Amino acid sequence: MSRAEAGGPLLEVEGVSVRFGALIALNRVSLGVAREEVVAIIGPNGAGKTTLLNAISGFYHPYEGRIAFAGRDRTHLRPPDVAALGIARTFQNVALFRGMSVLDNIMTGRLLKMRGSFLLEALYWGPARRQELEHRAAVERIIDFLEIQGIRKTPAGRLPYGLQKRVELARALAAEPTLLLLDEPMAGMNVEEKEDMCRFILDVNQEFGTTIVLIEHDMGVVMDISDRVVVLDYGRKIADAPPAEIRSDRAVLDAYLGVAHES
Amino acid sequence: MVDVVYAVLVAPFKDMAGSPAFLVEVLIGGVFAGLMYSLVALGFVLIFKASGVFNFAQGVMVLFAALTLVGLLERGVPVVLALALTTAVMVALAFAIERFVLRPLVNQEHIILFMATIGLNFFLEGFGEMLWGANVKKLDIGIPDRSFVVRGVQINELELTAAVTAALLVTLLAMFFQKTRIGRALRAVADDHEAALSIGIPLKTIWVVVWSVAGVVAIVAGLMWGAKSGVQFSLSLIALKALPVLILGGFESVPGAIVGGLIIGIGEKVGEVYWGPLVGGAIENWFAYVLALAFLLARPQGLFGEKIIERV
Amino acid sequence: MEAVAKGTDALALDAERDTFPKLVRLNARRFGSKVAIREKDLGIWRAYTWAQYFEEARLIALGLASLGFARGDRVAIVGDNRPRLYWAVAAVQALGGVPVPIYQDSVEKEMEYIVDHAEARFAVVEDQEQVDKLLGVRARCRRLQHVLYDDPRGMRAYREPGLASLSELRELGKKFEVSHPTYFDDEVGRGTADDIAIICYTSGTTGTPKGAMLSHRNLIATARNAAQVEGLREDEEVLSYLPMAWVGDHIFSYAQAIVVGFAINCPESAETVLADLKEIAPTYFFGPPRIWESVLTGVMVRVEDAARPKRAIVHFFLRLAQDIERRRLGRQPISLRQRLLYPLGSFLVYGPLKDNLGLSRVRRAYTAGEAIGPEIFLFFRGLGVNVKQLYGMTEASVFVTIQRDGDVRLDTVGTPITGVEIRISNEGEVLFRSPGVFQGYAKNPEATRQTLEGGWIRSGDAGFLDADGHLKIIDRAKDVSRLADGTMFAPKFLENKLKFSPYVREAVCIGQGRPCVTALLNIDLIAVGSWAERRNIAYTSYADLAQKPEVYELIHREVERVNRSLAEDAVLHATQVRRFLILHKELDPDDEEITRTRKVRRGFIAQKYAPLIEALYSGRDHVQVEAKVTYEDGRTGTMRADVKIRDVDLVAAQGGR
Amino acid sequence: MGRLEVIYREAGQFKATYASDQAIFPIVQDRVVVVAIAVVAFVVPPLVAGEYWLQAILIPFLIYTLAAIGLNLLTGYAGQLSLGTGGFMAVGAYSAFKLTTAFPQLSIVVVFLLSGLVAAVIGLGFGIPSLRIKGFYLAVATLAAQFFLIWLFNKVAWFTNYASSGTITAPHRTLLGVTVTGPNASAAARYVMALAFVAVFALVAKNLVRGRIGRSWMAIRDRDIAAEIIGVRPLRTKLLAFGISSFYCGVAGAELVFLYLGSAETLAFDINQSFLVLFMVIIGGLGSILGSWLGAAFILMLPILLTNLPHAVGLTMSVALQKQIELMVFGGLILFFLIVEPHGLARLWQIGKEKLRLWPFPH
């Protein structure tokens, strides 16, 4: 606690390795993320980007190394505990609750902020009812923030892809996270949707002071919105620098940008 | 307290040691029963592997096959012809199921397909009984239900025949999956529908084939069980007996179905004989389940399932 | 209805009720706990009473005063319809200042012109988007000092001097009040009926915007006269969805709301207007023809997706309703069969349809600004929505004529309201004078002189009064012209006929000094797009869809239909459309092809599309065009398109009518 | 007389508070109809309906609706397929029998609620495997509960108070001076009691599913991985579903014996009972409280219709044949239903309602 308050990095990943059987998906990757920073992780497919996010959010447990959040070791927490620390995330292939309305999806994001009192909830009475309404108000502020007023009662599964991504961001924001992990938030979007999403991400960062780690393929986006770019290749970190330097980094050009240009 | 511990943990083993021949008899009985379970479980696995459908109607298919066979035999049709005709009926049934149940429900959630097979279960039960009548029938396929003794161990001829047939069928199926093109396609389809298509066999065909094969397995199972305990409604309940086998062996594993069947068969017989009396008997209805469940808690992917890494 | 005094009596105003701030104060006293304004905010309708309305306006005013606001200061108001912006209008007026609402979708350059021309010292705006524009404007217009905003989102890091939120301003106001307890009432008391209440910049189809100055007297008298004529009540509900910068919204959502004391409702966002309309179900509704048209198009598109029997039922009853309404308006008898079928239609179609559109509670609705297609008009009236035509101008504080209940006609715009006199000039131009006649254009005596002659306003419209005293408008006076052979040619009339087709979004007719009439058309992307989808016609973009042969066929039939109906017209049968083309791009206010209120800029189009127009008269069946396009990233490029041209058969005139 | 306003007229029904926006029936017309139905349901059948209607149709309908709501919470909302409903109902029934015979002075309402609690505890126990196993594996595991529990009640005579017949019989009990259980209880009294229970617990279920708990269930159902990362704890959430679901089934089981059958043996709770309730849930609509009502009505009415229809058209057939035809039609209808509308009657209802609301628009 005190270390974090003293200004240490919010998230520290130290020499983390993740293995699936014989496959080494992450190989001693280290990464520090400061408070209110926007860090982009780039790298070719299979470089271990999503694996890194999964390790941070507790889906995979590293085989070696250490993950610390706000100065404390969090290497072996399970996802719900990670969420309780104030880490939220979105998924590469939108993982919305398809059968629920947009409103309910975002409300679910506030789960950790809600207190349970089974009997009162069963009666929808008193504090339980008040709590529902208060959180509805909080969710409405997020709906307003992300400009999705027109779809709040629509079942999430019926939305076009771009909007689903936005709703997923809304659900992550509903938890009022300190650290937001975004796995390809702009994948499959058109130019206009991408611009909107960029604006939202920057707004989130500025408005709420949320620290953001994102994986993104669109180099234009990465250069525009991130403070720092981390490049992974075959499970190793090969670069970690501000966008301007990344642009001219030879190793990165070889490993990644060259590939990207071909495709 | 001590009595209970003794009764549960010591006495049964003392009994086993006291009469090894009886133990062997029990074990053989367990193996026979297990092979029969395997046979039914195999029907489930085949269908689940190829179409992702948990076919609850497998038990009724056994009953239906047996009813058809008995019905034909009763009308004086020779055994071989009756078997051929029954096979034809089961293949026709496979076609009908593909056309009227599976095809309209393609891409539905698994639970919906599962429900559909329960519907099918009811339909076939009513249909079979309407065609062939509901009363208990004796199925006589010419193998005497008598025992001979080998080194003090009693062996029932009928059970032995059934076990051998089951073993034979299991081997044949394994060969079918390993050696034939369509067999390989069936295995492929379980993993990846696209891949199966690239082999050049339409999904429709695969489904018909697999349901036909399951139908044939059902005939054999019906034949064996029917010969042993008569052809009646309760035949359809043997499906429920096969379910723990599936839990144990995994829904998608042919070897799992076989080994699982043996474990359940033996475990059940041994449990019934040595521990059953402690709780008043008749534990065969649930013992297998508890056995499978306990096993599953330790190893959720089943006997032969691979550990699934959840990709997120 | 209470008898209404004629002529100059209507100009007399009680000194306690002669400005809007005074009226708001009165409303706060008269019905303090009655809802004055609702806003859909964060998912629910938040209501503010007249007492809150007054209190909020008062605090904003005091806050402005603490920033050194002086009488006569101009304040730019920019944003969507938001309660705080309406309150700011009242606050500015309370201090003797003049609000200058500006279209919120204006680009910075347009905004700069108005801020500069109006000499605004303050700006009250909605959000970051507008703040950014205003800060840009301020860099060049040094007179603009303070920019105040409603929604602080995204501006946490803004450290510009003179930038503050309305909440902060409100706090300043509270502080200011402690030291100046009577300041507000004193300032309100100093206001008089002839102070300028607002300057509305008209976008103008040509040239630069002109700022029409309207006094409190203009607006109050006109709002009151119209309300009395129409019998407006305190319990009206209005949806305030049209731009605040447009005088129409100002009169309906501000002036009349205050004068009558009814409630207005601000939609959640531009995208949710239709849903909000349904939720609120206003009793009093206003829409320019394009709104009615787009609602109708929406209805037709959705009905087209219905199953065949349902579609047949809907079409049958809609035809029935339109036929009945046409007969009713034409004072023709209605058959017994129709009388019997109408209640059934009402149950099956009209009632549910109105309910779905949110028009079921409408007691009166207006359309104005341009002529409305008769079919659109009949459609809504047929449903039982009391939509009426209104003739008005910014310079007249809107109301000139209204069609009275029970005296609605298809081809006129009604009779003058109380206090309005109408005269037709020798050239056929409509002139009028009324208590609402404006105080002139700000800093533009030349334009004022051209428009205002001896108290009479030159409307610029060609028209006449019929035997019953109804005003009938033909076209813009300057637009009515002649073909080469001298035939009278009224382009807008033709364009409106073309635009009635759900598939035609915009039309520009050409013919002045030409041998025949031709047309440049825009298809309606939604309607034609869904038409194409139903026919499995794949398309990639507007430009692609527009040039599909099938689409040309579709539009061809629509043009033929227009020609057939023109053939019935005694005067205009010779101006049928001879050739047409579908433009490769949509006419866009950003490209200055149409105004923000979607009026066609003829001169500009004639110039920009000269090669296309020449091709129309050259007999070629297609033409290559190159257009400059600006990409999202600011780069420009050239887009090449091959635009097809179609001939249309003329229909022989039917002498009958 | 105004115009017929029976169809939805929603324009102008705007919401000024979140409470009104989140109401169970946000549309005025719905509220009016539901309240009217509730009032009519309490008043009319006891006065008007004959013994046959109450005993053969309405009472089982209400009891099975309660069970179906219970299973729907688990399967429809939390996504955990269970085939052990009959077993949990048996727990409720036997608990109620034991409790009321041991403490005769205990109010029968309390007895029912306590029986539900006992079933809930047992349900929690059988829910533990749900952490490790999913889908059909879990379904099969719940079968273990079914078989084990029935076996237990059969084997252990203590549960039946050592009755030689092995049956449990509802004793005479009164509520507010009215006899509600036992041989002398009138059908009307039992009907009102069953209705009161199901009405209250349907409301409770609705409250649960529209709030925090329901959202966690649906989150686990729709995307368990995404649910975990927003803080849903899978075991706790699933166990809660098992517990609450079993509570409902337990109360329904107690009612089945006390308010409907009068006396029963374990046969009344066999595997077919589990399937019956599952069918109600699926045909009615997974994830819909309304669907549970519709499903129970449909599944219960079907055999009655199938029995009476041949009579109505003057056909006579043997009981066996009738039984077989019933099975076929039953199975066939389920297949037909799944193919035509796999999301059940509730979805059909919803579509119909949407159609009415949007009429004349198709969407």
What would you note in describing this structure?
The complex is a heterotetramer of chains A (263), B (312), C (657) and D (363). Chain A has 263 residues and is α/β, with parallel strands linked by helices. Chain A has helices spanning 2-5, 49-56, 79-84, 102-109, 118-123, 127-145, 161-174, 191-208, 219-225, 243-248, 250-262; strands at residues 11-20, 23-33, 38-42, 64-69, 72-73, 87-90, 179-183, 211-215, 228-233, 236-241. In chain A, strands 6-7-8-3-9-10 form a six-stranded mixed β-sheet, sandwiched between helices. In chain A, strands 2-1-4-5 form a four-stranded antiparallel β-sheet, with helices on one face. In chain A, a hairpin with a 2-residue loop joins strand 4 and strand 5 (72-73). By secondary structure, chain B is mainly alpha-helical. Chain B has a single domain (19-298), classed as ABC transporter involved in vitamin B12 uptake, BtuC. Helix content of chain B is 74%, strand content 3%. Chain B has a two-stranded antiparallel ribbon with strand order 1-2. In chain B, strand 1 (147-150) and strand 2 (153-156) form a beta hairpin. Chain B is globular, with a radius of gyration of 20 Å. In chain C, 39% of the residues lie in helices and 23% in strands. Chain C has a five-stranded parallel β-sheet, with helices on both faces. Chain C has a five-stranded mixed β-sheet with strand order 12-13-14-15-16. In chain C, strands 17, 18, 19, 20 and 21 form a five-stranded antiparallel β-sheet that branches. In chain C, helix 3 links the parallel strand 3 (74-78) and strand 4. Chain C is globular. Chain D is mostly helical and 363 residues long. Chain D has a domain at 49-270. Chain A binds chain C through residues 136-137, 140-141, 143-145, 147, 149-150, 152, 191-192, 195, 203, 206-207, and chain C through 41-44, 153-154, 156-157, 268-269, 271-272, 275, 632.
Largest sheet of chain A: 6 strands, mixed
Order of helices and strands of chain A: HEEEHEEHEHHHHEHEHEEHH
- Total number of domains of chain A: 2
Helix content of chain C: 25-40%
Large-scale geometry of chain C: globular
Record field, number of beta strands of chain C: 28
The main sheet of chain C comes to: 5 strands, parallel
Can you say what the CATH homologous superfamily of the largest domain in chain A is?
A: P-loop containing nucleotide triphosphate hydrolases
Q: CATH H-level name of the largest domain in chain C... which superfamily?
A: ANL, N-terminal domain
| Span between termini of chain C | 39 Å
- Widest sheet, order of strands of chain C: 4-3-5-6-7
CATH class of the largest domain in chain A: Alpha Beta
Biggest interchain interface, per-side counts: B-D, 48 and 44 residues
What is the topology, as strand order, of the major beta sheet of chain A? 6-7-8-3-9-10
What is the helix content of chain A?
Answer: 40-55%
CATH topology of the largest domain in chain A: Rossmann fold
CATH architecture of the largest domain in chain C: 3-Layer(aba) Sandwich
Number of H- or I-type helical stretches of chain C:
21
Integer tally of domains of chain C: 3
